[in-house]
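Thread amino acids onto this structure.
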């Protein structure tokens, strides 16, 4: 047999393996860190996106909350942030020359007009639909069923007054009577005594409450909605806002929120060795 017909020797095979090993290790020293860095960047981006989305979701609910309804429990960690979202609102008549029915404060009343129209006049379409009115609530009395909010047993009906304007009558259109335009009239099924006037004559329409509960033990931030005002938040419909929560806080107490109209939120999310902390401030209107 000639030399050209022989295979590789053991020494040649070992030498090739050694060389390939050296080349592989050398390449790995450059490739592995790059891959790990890319993975870490993706993890951080995902955490930032989740945290930012969660904070913005809370801020949206805070901004439409009924004045003085934002409540904070256990602000340092594992907080419960509760509020009553407003569905609609307007300004009630109070001695205006062109108003046929003004709201009487500190006395029983069942019928009054508002200055203009509610944004969505169909919110009372279904009898017993659960919509309630709030007027002059300076300290969160709506949660306790104080007179600032109509009871759940009182239904709210809307009509358009004077009702002789355009055909069909549309709220906000020119009126054929002495009034300059058609407006919404509120009729309550039972007399209501609102004890305190609103400085800006504001009337709010509310229905149910909303709460956010942070739980670092389960690493979750959960939104509860659709539960009765004054009831426990966990009786509502739960929806996961984000997971991987390692720390959370609301640095504003309930009294501070009512005084300053500002809620400061902090959320920390982590995965593996990566962690991000985001803070967000939400401004709300606590004026009555």
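Threaded sequence (288 positions):
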């Amino acid at each position: 047999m000639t030399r050209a017909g022989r295979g590789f020797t053991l020494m040649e095979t070992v030498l090739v393996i050694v060389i390939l090993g050296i080349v592989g290790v050398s390449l790995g020293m450059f490739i592995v860190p790059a891959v790990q860095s890319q993975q870490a960047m993706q993890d951080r981006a995902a955490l930032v996106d989740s945290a930012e989305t969660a904070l913005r979701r809370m801020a949206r609910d805070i901004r439409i909350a009924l004045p003085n309804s934002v409540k904070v429990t256990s602000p340092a960690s594992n907080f419960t942030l509760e509020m009553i979202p407003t569905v609609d609102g307007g300004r009630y008549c109070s001695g205006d020359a062109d108003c046929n029915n003004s709201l009487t404060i500190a006395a029983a009343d069942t019928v009054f007009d508002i200055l203009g129209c509610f944004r969505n006049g169909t919110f009372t379409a279904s009898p017993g639909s659960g919509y309630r009115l709030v007027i002059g609530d300076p300290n969160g009395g709506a949660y306790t069923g104080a007179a600032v909010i109509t009871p759940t047993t009182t239904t709210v009906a809307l009509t358009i007054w004077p009702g002789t304007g355009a055909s069909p009558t549309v709220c906000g259109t020119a009126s054929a009577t002495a009034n300059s335009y058609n407006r919404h009239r509120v009729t309550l099924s039972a007399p209501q005594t609102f004890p305190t006037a609103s400085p800006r004559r504001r009337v709010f329409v509310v229905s149910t409450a909303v709460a956010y509960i942070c739980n670092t033990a389960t690493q979750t931030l959960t939104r509860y909605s659709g539960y009765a005002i004054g009831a426990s938040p966990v009786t509502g419909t739960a929806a996961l806002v984000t997971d991987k929560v390692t720390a959370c806080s609301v640095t504003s107490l309930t009294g501070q929120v009512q005084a300053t109209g500002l809620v400061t939120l902090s959320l920390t999310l982590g995965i593996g060795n990566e962690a991000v902390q985001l803070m967000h401030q939400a401004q709300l209107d606590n004026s009555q």
